[in-house]
Amino acid sequence: MTVALFDLDGVLTSTAVLHRSAWKRAFDAYLRERDPEGFAEFTAQDYLDYVDGRPRTDGVRTFLASRGITDVDEATVEEIGTGKNEMFLTALESEGVTPYPGSVRYLEAAKAAGLRIAVVTSSKNGEAVLEAADLSKYVEIRVDGLDVVARGLNGKPAPDSFLLGARLMGVEPAHAAVFEDAISGVTAAAAGNFGYIVAIDRHDGEQTEAMRAAGASVVVADLDELVPA
């Protein structure tokens, strides 16, 4: 492998927690307004199953469909997604971004070993998060949600964004490794026939078997496990 393609939220930074919290507030507000008596909150499992790793509007549609809500127009989808993003950016500004120490150690080791590094994320806030976490110095190429929209790509679990990352880095997928924490991302990497897929299960092993079934080559709890002692 000559190139490493990293997802961002949940792989390099702890911002997945901020995303999950913002999604919960946005979806709960919508669900409560739509059906006050039948309100059932957005859960952590909902986030993992229907939203994690997907482009913003895809996540909205996928989650709402899981609740049998299919009559939502595009304006409402955009309103939910935009509201979520505003809450995320507010939390990002007030709480900051913390990179996972093990991920930073892995980036250092990968760079020292001569691996070229790219970030492939569904988030439209990729640049802001990388800068806030002081990780831009490691990254040669960034593909984010803005690129997905601008190029008309299919979001994860389709492989399009990872394939774009490999192409921009000048390598075939077989010569690139993907690092993901979302089932949708692991599925995308497998569909793209990438040479090696590292899955990070930050949920106490609850996703390990599903990640393996989705195509992960190896599953770890933290990238620090892959750094030579």
Automatic annotation (TrEMBL):
Molecular-function annotations in GO: beta-phosphoglucomutase activity; hydrolase activity; metal ion binding
Q: Which domain of life is it from?
A: Bacteria
Quote the InterPro entries the UniProt record gives.
Answer: B-phosphoglucomutase_hydrolase (IPR010976), Beta-PGM-like (IPR051600), HAD-like_sf (IPR036412), HAD-SF_hydro_IA (IPR006439), HAD_sf (IPR023214), PGP-like_dom2 (IPR023198)
Q: Which residues cross the membrane?
A: none
Name the UniProt key words of this record, in alphabetical order.
Answer: Carbohydrate metabolism, Hydrolase, Isomerase, Magnesium, Metal-binding, Phosphoprotein
- Matches recorded under Pfam families: Hydrolase
Q: Give the enzyme's EC designation.
A: 5.4.2.6
Reactions catalysed according to its record: beta-D-glucose 1-phosphate = beta-D-glucose 6-phosphate
Q: Coiled-coil ranges per the record? A: none
**UniProt enzyme class:** isomerase
**What cofactor does this one take?**
Mg(2+)
Entry similarity comment: Belongs to the HAD-like hydrolase superfamily. CbbY/CbbZ/Gph/YieH family.
Q: What is this protein called?
A: Beta-phosphoglucomutase
* Organism in which the protein naturally occurs: Gordonia amarae NBRC 15530
